[in-house]
Design goal:
mainly alpha; 3 helices; two-stranded antiparallel ribbon; P-loop_NTPase; 41% helix; transport; 79 residues; extended
Length: 79
């Protein structure tokens, strides 16, 4: 069999898997009183976009050009 392996349309040599996924241990130090949404929001804000800013800007531009308007709360956690 032959073919290409891609991640969100990018070939494996075009992205760094370590920057697109993370391991979170069971021994989480987040506040237990936070909801799942609050915990994910907190984590996303701590990580920031870092070196992915250019990629995310281009993605947003292409989405707008294609008439794709993601739901804001879902989009926040997917990027």
């Amino acid at each position: 069999k032959s073919g290409e392996i891609t991640y969100n349309g990018h070939l494996l040599n075009e992205f760094v898997p370590q920057k697109t996924s993370a391991y979170i241990s069971q021994n989480d130090v987040h506040v237990g009183e936070m909801t799942v949404k609050e915990t994910l929001d907190f984590s996303a804000r701590c990580q920031g976009v870092g070196s992915r800013y250019d990629l995310l800007s281009e993605l947003a531009r292409r989405e707008r050009a294609a008439g794709i308007f993601p739901e804001a709360e879902v989009d926040l956690f997917m990027k």
